[in-house]
Amino acid sequence: MPLSVRSPEFNPVENTWQFMHDNWLSNRIFTAHRDIIDHRCYAWNALIDQPWKITSIALWSRARGHDQ
Asked: Stretch 8-26: mean pLDDT, rounded?
């Protein structure tokens, strides 16, 4: 079944960014552009150190697709 292009919840990349935001980037006040970049790099490196988590996030969209 084709997925709608307007369904970001089915996009593994969107799910990955949302996971990073929820776990490492939310509720922060950034004081400078460099601070934003540093936090994003930290979040990305923390995620790639957990390959099982990346696999899990990629499967969320498939699971959601079967629910509907």
From this structure: 83
